[in-house]
């Protein structure tokens, strides 16, 4: 690192010890596979088929474990020097466009959306160089009304934040987590600001509840006239409204400073045209913003991911503006963190291991995935530019529009860029902008950028850059991971598979890292096999593992114990996961493999053979009051579909039945004999039972609305009894 560098890259500690551990695991995995191959039961012996199936499952686990080493072998951490940035570039910082996407005012409440927007408008950055765009795919007048309210409130909120250096700057979060200051000079202003905010949110909630904006309020802004009675969320013309124009000398806050530009966009929707979900919205924003502000740097965030660090833009610019390495960097990715996780993370949604370990590991191979939120891009590269060694960014790029031009004409011209037909017979969605046709448009777009020769950077500051709302029920969790899994499976089974598309373009370690997520679905079948067949074999008295006195017992027991011990240590070292949180993570690891990844894989296959088409379901950002209370109490909410609950229950009840039968056999035959023969199978079966304690509680002990319905339980119990009886025939 030179003295002029704006950031530093540091190797993670403890890598030598980890590599020794990994080598011992690899050696023992090889011994396990050798044992399976050389101890195959004869054709006339019971359990031959189960043995072969178990061997294939273990071979898959070995391959997948090798893939996971790519993100643990040499992780790196980044550190920025914002003081150097200020000294060198303060007077010539580039303009920044910020994209926020929403689609449904009921799944994503407008008050949540504008809280995010207000936090982004209040960055520690020259406001005249900021432009915030909201894409509303629902084309809702309710969301536009909330944005108009936010444009008025911003005049008071932004100077208030900067005067007192508030964090976070999302008013919904700030006022819900902060007490009134003790300083009397600050108290009055704080209380007044809170009253202003609550009055605004109450007005917005009332409008959303009524479903319409009163005529007297529509007179406050010309934009309300764009909505006609016949418009729906699935069919409406393009709407672009500039709520605040930073070039307007009258667009100032209470302190007399310029306000950031604020733009509302609803691209045209028509059932006759495919709208390409979030990727289509982002591409429309790229075109519309190029006309209004055309900033060289773009930040995109989800509508619930508010800014939690007012210096995030400056941190990102430390990478882009670095003289030595900056020209190679296409995007800077922040982690996706949530602010509504319980202490022990009931549904394993904190993504802590991914954020603290895996993305750092990918960074050492050329950069992390683009995960669709909290990401800073270079506009030109997002629009398809290929890598060249002599590339130089034009940091002075901005829209050439005249500040005296008629705003309505500018809006109409921008609307022409957001029509359904604009992209027909163009490269948009293929070589320009975000890629279409894949459910995880962000991941495939990032891969294509890296394969064009660019690098990316992962930055995880001590003070999180962005915080959002994570799933807080079982159904929401399964839905979100099913969608992620489906998109990643589509990538692997297409020409964009990292091993094929990335061959010779990105490093092997990065190819392997992508495939960790691309192959989530492939884990479902081996997992189903491993939690069902050994338990049924135990029920039948068939041993599938070495005896305790056999030397081959050592590699099996070592891998089982060492891997789980390392997993626990890795989680605890992040300092964000408790022991109970780790245990919950293991439970959800099992549940997701049995449901989300299975469903995602099947959905992908059905699309490939033409049975169904790609869809997109928004993960709700709210839940019922009773469900929210149970979530806060860390009680699982069994609100998933009957089929999903049946799969989870089947595995839980089957393993409980098999464990009870094994215990009975041990009592009758003697513990020493049974443990000698079946210890590892009993351990595996017992582990599944222990992981499912919360499931048994939902089955037998709970009476609340979040428990498992008796109809599902009785049906599943009957199936378990039938399978148990048939397995013993």
TrEMBL record:
<feature type="binding site">
    <location>
        <position position="108"/>
    </location>
    <ligand>
        <name>UDP-alpha-D-glucose</name>
    </ligand>
</feature>
<feature type="active site">
    <location>
        <position position="442"/>
    </location>
</feature>
<feature type="binding site">
    <location>
        <position position="302"/>
    </location>
    <ligand>
        <name>Mn(2+)</name>
    </ligand>
</feature>
<keyword id="KW-1133">Transmembrane helix</keyword>
<keyword id="KW-0961">Cell wall biogenesis/degradation</keyword>
<protein>
    <recommendedName>
        <fullName>Cellulose synthase-like protein E6</fullName>
    </recommendedName>
</protein>
<feature type="binding site">
    <location>
        <position position="278"/>
    </location>
    <ligand>
        <name>Mn(2+)</name>
    </ligand>
</feature>
<dbReference type="Pfam" id="PF03552">
    <property type="entry name" value="Cellulose_synt"/>
</dbReference>
<keyword id="KW-0333">Golgi apparatus</keyword>
<feature type="transmembrane region" description="Helical">
    <location>
        <begin position="674"/>
        <end position="696"/>
    </location>
</feature>
<dbReference type="GO" id="GO:0071669">
    <property type="term" value="P:plant-type cell wall organization or biogenesis"/>
</dbReference>
<feature type="active site">
    <location>
        <position position="137"/>
    </location>
</feature>
<dbReference type="InterPro" id="IPR029044">
    <property type="entry name" value="Nucleotide-diphossugar_trans"/>
</dbReference>
<feature type="transmembrane region" description="Helical">
    <location>
        <begin position="514"/>
        <end position="532"/>
    </location>
</feature>
<dbReference type="GO" id="GO:0071555">
    <property type="term" value="P:cell wall organization"/>
</dbReference>
<comment type="similarity">
    <text>Belongs to the glycosyltransferase 2 family. Plant cellulose synthase-like E subfamily.</text>
</comment>
<keyword id="KW-0808">Transferase</keyword>
<feature type="transmembrane region" description="Helical">
    <location>
        <begin position="49"/>
        <end position="67"/>
    </location>
</feature>
<dbReference type="GO" id="GO:0000139">
    <property type="term" value="C:Golgi membrane"/>
</dbReference>
<feature type="transmembrane region" description="Helical">
    <location>
        <begin position="594"/>
        <end position="620"/>
    </location>
</feature>
<dbReference type="GO" id="GO:0030244">
    <property type="term" value="P:cellulose biosynthetic process"/>
</dbReference>
<feature type="transmembrane region" description="Helical">
    <location>
        <begin position="708"/>
        <end position="726"/>
    </location>
</feature>
<dbReference type="InterPro" id="IPR005150">
    <property type="entry name" value="Cellulose_synth"/>
</dbReference>
<keyword id="KW-0328">Glycosyltransferase</keyword>
<feature type="transmembrane region" description="Helical">
    <location>
        <begin position="640"/>
        <end position="662"/>
    </location>
</feature>
<dbReference type="GO" id="GO:0016760">
    <property type="term" value="F:cellulose synthase (UDP-forming) activity"/>
</dbReference>
<keyword id="KW-0812">Transmembrane</keyword>
<feature type="binding site">
    <location>
        <position position="137"/>
    </location>
    <ligand>
        <name>UDP-alpha-D-glucose</name>
    </ligand>
</feature>
<keyword id="KW-0472">Membrane</keyword>
<comment type="function">
    <text>Thought to be a Golgi-localized beta-glycan synthase that polymerize the backbones of noncellulosic polysaccharides (hemicelluloses) of plant cell wall.</text>
</comment>
<feature type="transmembrane region" description="Helical">
    <location>
        <begin position="20"/>
        <end position="37"/>
    </location>
</feature>
């Amino acid at each position: 690192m030179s003295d002029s560098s704006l950031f530093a890259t540091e190797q993670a500690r403890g890598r030598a010890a980890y590599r020794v551990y990994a080598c011992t695991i690899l050696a023992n995995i090889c011994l396990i596979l050798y044992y399976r191959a050389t101890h195959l039961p004869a054709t006339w012996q019971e359990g031959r088929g189960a043995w072969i199936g178990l061997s294939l499952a273990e071979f898959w686990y070995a391959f997948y474990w090798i893939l996971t080493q790519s993100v643990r072998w040499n992780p790196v951490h980044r550190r920025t020097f914002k003081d150097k940035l200020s000294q060198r570039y303060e007077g010539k910082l580039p303009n920044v466009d910020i994209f926020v996407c929403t689609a449904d005012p009921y799944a994503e409440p407008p008050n949540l959306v504008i809280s995010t927007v207000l936090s982004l408008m209040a960055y520690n950055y020259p406001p005249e160089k900021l432009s915030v765009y909201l894409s509303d795919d629902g084309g809702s007048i309710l969301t536009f009304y909330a944005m108009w309210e936010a444009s008025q409130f911003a005049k008071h909120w932004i100077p208030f934040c900067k005067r007192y250096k508030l964090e976070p700057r999302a008013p919904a979060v700030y006022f819900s987590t902060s007490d009134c200051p003790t300083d009397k000079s600050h108290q009055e202003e704080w209380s007044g600001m809170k009253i202003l905010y609550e009055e605004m949110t109450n007005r917005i909630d009332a409008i959303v509840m009524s479903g319409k904006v009163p005529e007297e309020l529509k007179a406050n802004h010309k934009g309300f006239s764009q909505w006609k009675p016949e418009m729906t969320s699935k069919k409406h013309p393009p709407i672009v409204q500039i709520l605040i124009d930073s070039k307007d000398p009258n667009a100032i806050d209470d302190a007399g400073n310029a306000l950031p530009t604020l733009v509302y966009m609803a691209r045209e929707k028509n059932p006759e045209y495919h709208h390409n979900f979030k990727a289509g919205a982002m591409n429309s924003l790229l075109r519309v913003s190029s006309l209004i502000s055309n900033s060289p740097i773009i930040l995109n965030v989800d509508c619930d991911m508010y800014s939690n660090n007012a210096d995030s833009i400056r941190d990102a610019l430390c990478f882009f503006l670095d003289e030595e390495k900056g020209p190679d960097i296409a995007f800077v990715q922040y982690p996706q963190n949530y602010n509504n996780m319980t202490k022990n993370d009931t549904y394993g949604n904190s993504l802590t291991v991914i954020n603290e370990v895996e993305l750092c590991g990918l960074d050492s191979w050329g950069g992390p995935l683009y995960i669709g939120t909290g990401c800073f891009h270079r506009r030109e590269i997002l629009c398809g530019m290929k890598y060249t060694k002599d590339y130089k960014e034009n940091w002075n790029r901005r829209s050439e529009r005249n500040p005296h031009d008629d705003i309505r004409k500018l809006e109409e011209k921008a609307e022409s860029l957001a029509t359904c037909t604009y992209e027909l017979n163009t490269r948009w969605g293929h070589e320009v902008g975000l890629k279409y046709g894949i459910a995880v448009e962000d991941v495939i777009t990032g891969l294509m950028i890296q394969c064009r020769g660019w690098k990316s950077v992962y930055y995880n500051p001590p003070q999180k850059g962005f915080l959002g709302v994570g799933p807080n029920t079982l159904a929401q969790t399964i839905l979100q991971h099913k969608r992620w899994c489906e998109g990643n499976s589509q990538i692997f089974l297409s020409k964009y598979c990292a091993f094929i598309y990335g061959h010779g373009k990105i490093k092997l370690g990065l190819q392997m890292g992508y495939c960790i997520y691309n192959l989530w679905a492939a884990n479902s079948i081996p997992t189903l096999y491993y939690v069902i067949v050994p338990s049924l074999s135990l029920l039948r008295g068939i041993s599938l593992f070495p005896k305790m006195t056999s030397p081959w017992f050592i590699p099996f027991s070592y891998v089982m114990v060492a891997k789980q011990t390392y997993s626990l240590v890795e989680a605890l070292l992040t300092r964000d996961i408790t022991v109970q949180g780790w245990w919950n993570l293991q439970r959800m690891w099992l549940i997701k493999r049995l449901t989300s990844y299975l469903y995602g894989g099947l959905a992908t296959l059905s699309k490939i053979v033409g049975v169904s088409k790609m869809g997109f379901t928004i993960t709700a950002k709210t839940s019922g009051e009773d469900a929210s209370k149970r979530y806060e109490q860390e009680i699982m909410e069994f609100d998933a579909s009957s089929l999903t609950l049946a799969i989870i229950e089947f595995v839980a009840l089957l393993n409980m039945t098999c464990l009870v039968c094994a215990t009975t056999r041990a009592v009758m035959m003697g513990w020493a004999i049974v443990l000698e023969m079946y210890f590892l199978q009993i351990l595996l079966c017992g582990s599944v039972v222990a992981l499912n304690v919360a499931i048994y509680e939902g089955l037998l002990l709970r009476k609340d609305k979040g428990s498992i319905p008796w109809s599902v339980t009785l049906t599943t119990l009957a199936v378990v009894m039938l399978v148990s009886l048939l397995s013993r025939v």
